[in-house]
Amino acid sequence: MRALLLLASSILAAACSHPLEIVGEGDIESSTQKNDCALEAQPCANFVVGDYRVTYVADPRPGWVFTGWDGCAGQFPLCAFDVSADRVERFAGQTMPPLRALFANAALAPQMSVATDWSATSGLLTVEVTFTDFSPTRVQLFPAGLAGDWVEEDSAAPFVFRLDSTRLEPGMHTLRVVADDGAEAISDTAMFVVPGCNGRHDLCDRRFDEVRYATTHNAMSSSARGWNGPNQAWDVPAQLAMGVRGLMLDTYRAGDLNLLGLVQVPDVDPDSAYLCHSICAIGKQPLVDGLAEIRTFLDDNPGAVVTLILESYLSHSLTAAAFDAAGLTPYAYVHGGGAWPTLGQMVDAGSRLVVLQDVAVNPAYPWLMNVWSHAFETHFSAAVPEDFSCADNRGSPGNDLFIFNHFLTDVFGSPALAEQVNHNPLLQERIAECESTHGAIANFVTVDFVDIGDTLTTIDELN
Predict the structure, then answer these.
(1) How confident is the model at residue 4 (pLDDT cuts 50, 70, 90)?
(2) Around Cβ 362, how many Cβ atoms within 10 Å?
(3) Which residue, of 35, 98, 139, 226, has the fewest CB within 10 Å?
């Protein structure tokens, strides 16, 4: 503790103080986020060490407006300092004249509203700023926050900005808006999301069939959910969170008989739909619940495009009823033939879920598409790595989509088997070999225990 106190004392001795004070009601925020001063904390000592490069913005409390700085050489509405470390050092241990933010009670209560809209196809982020009881003559927008050098400005209503969102990494961002009329100013921040398409800007321009997707075999069968003989460690929400975008799922009717001649799920409505792997006794989940988890992910991730490949033992009506009950049907994409849309088009249209199943198409449910009308696959019954082959199995190699099966099975899958095949160079070399064989990219690279090995990073690199 004594050493820490001595260190703190030496740092303060090398620092100078540039006090921040507030008159009226508001806060001072800084581009560094280290030089802020809240109303309740002021006056703030604001110790400075090293380079002092900072921009301040005054943020009035409700019912107040910012009227100017005292100690900022006439700058308005922002206040910026750029002082080198050697100049700061000359004033070590001294207190400089304060910087005061002056706020005044507003006759009316000015308000600012910020609305954002992102387009995946154009890459544009549209920002509209509107005001109540305030008529600014200038609006400044800081898409990357005060710390960035990206500033947009407009001097006349309507204040609508169209920004190139590819300058921002996909994810959540904070936008700063400062508006003034030459005498008074208000400021606010707005959170917004630039999702990208499956987490990347460049994928938005690619057709659905031009992208590779990390895909999990028997995705529902996980040790995380206590299934016996699982094919995955992570459950479906975790798989999606980590970047999986293709899920192979098996669906069963509760009242049907399993391989042992027993009712799959006794003592429930026989028309209940479940996710199971052959025998529901070794692991099961109500289909509605599993689909609801996928819907939650799509709700929370507006740039995600997900594919379900169903081994279905249900009627179309039971499958559709489960999708409806889970609220997932509105996301379903219907392919009418011809070229597949780009991921950006699917994102903008809200049709971000492709559902393929191994049963014939029912025209009443056009979004439940037959997998072998659109895809082909490699063989899936490998017991050792030497069994792997690029030869096609089900579906025609002329179809648009390529399901690349890459897992070993010894009755069940296992982490030990996944350790043999999920790593590079084998995974990457086999993808390259089979893509060359078929002259098509491996759209759905399907593995057991996707948490093991290099599948996720390899797909990202190949895309």
Answers:
(1) very low
(2) 14
(3) 226
> Rounded mean pLDDT of 343-365?
97
Residue reference for tokens 């690279």 = 445
Pairing of strands 213-216, 246-253: parallel
pLDDT recorded at residue 157? 94
One-character DSSP codes across 229-278: S-SBSS-HHHHHHTT--EEEEEEEETTSB-TTSSBSSTTS-TT-EEEESS
> What is the spatial distance between Cα 81 and Cα 72, in angstroms, rounded to a whole number?
9
Q: How far is CA 386 from CA 217, 415, 442, 458, in A?
A: 20, 18, 20, 21
Crossing angle (nearest 10°) for helices 455-462 and 426-438? 40
User: Which CATH architecture is the domain 202-462 placed in?
Assistant: Alpha-Beta Barrel (3.20)
**Domain residue ranges in the chain:** 12-105, 111-194, 202-462
Task: Name beta bridge partners: 104.
Answer: 65
Q: What angle do CA 5, 10, 12 make, to 5 degrees?
A: 95
> What is the rounded (10 degree) CA torsion for 392, 394, 398, 402?
-80
Buried b (16+ CB within 10 A) or exposed e, 67-105: bbbebbeeebbbbebebeeeebeeeeeeebebbbbbbbe
Token pair listed for 180: 């003034």
Q: Is the dihedral of CA 344, 346, 350, 354 positive or negative?
A: negative
Kindly report, residue by residue over 149-202, the tens digit of the pLDDT: 899 999 999 999 999 999 999 999 999 999 999 999 999 999 999 999 999 999
Query: pTM of the prediction?
Result: 0.90
Q: Report pLDDT digits (tens) over 269-297.
A: 999 999 999 999 999 999 999 999 999 99
Give CA 92 to chain center in angstroms: 45
Q: CA 364, CA 101: separation in Å to the nearest integer?
A: 65
Which run of H or E residues covers position 191?
Answer: strand 185-194
The residues that bridge with 212 in the sheet, in sequence order, are none
Predicted confidence (pLDDT) per residue in 399-453, tens digit:
999 999 999 998 888 999 999 999 999 999 999 999 999 999 999 999 999 999 9
Contacts of residue 288, Cβ cutoff 8 Å, sequence gap at least 6: 273, 322, 325, 326
Does 2.60.40.10 match the CATH number of domain 111-194?
A: yes
The number of residues in the chain equals 463
448: phi then psi, degrees, rounded to nearest 5:
-90, 155
CA–CA separation, 220 vs 240, rounded Å?
12
